[in-house]
Amino acid sequence: MNKQKFIICVLLSIVFMPAYASDEELLFHFSFFKPTVTSQYDFEEQVLERNGLNGMFEVGAAYPSFEVGFFIGGGSLGKDIGEFIVGGSPTKLLWIWDNLIAVPISVAIAYRYQWMAIENMYVTYFIDEPEFLKEPESYLNEKRNMSRKNLDIMPAIDLQIFFNDNIALYAGYMYRLNFAGKWEIKYKIPGKYYEKGKDGNSYEVPEEFNPLKDSKEKIFGVPGTLRFGLKFYVDK
Question: Domain 3-114+147-181+214-235 - what CATH class?
Fold first, then answer.
């Protein structure tokens, strides 16, 4: 078992430790995380750095030492990559000072969809189609969306401060393991007949065109990202 899997197993065991289910409350949770990614983009040997900001809204249930919720959100990674994310997150609260300061430990599991525009002239490098040679430069400069789907596992540890029984503010560190599919592009070949409603052929984008090749989210030079948020607790 490698180090990452071991850490995930330890966090999961902590998060799913039994919690007494009294005084249940509704939880409304707004959170943000700020990824910074540097990647080697093989095409034209570009080194790209992207600074993003993602936001999520979560709704769930809260107990004195355990929380669980479902979230939806998204954001951007740099100016060219968009992200949509949806998932669930169990959280274990380790109390430092009762009803005032806690250390939440969570392991979120999420589906993430990413998209990015790519110029037709770059697409011609990996779609072998002679019809492209007949197209004007204005067409080749137009853009098409490439996209991919990810399964994310996001362990996090935070410091949470309660202002009263209903509001809490937290900030901490989150690490994101992503199990990503390949970038793909839907494209209609010029001059080719398509049935009504068909959006084109699906092509896998080669690795040299992967804008996030061998990239890691980092905060202060360490893999991971900073996150912060606000929680509202409502008595049922």
Answer: mainly beta
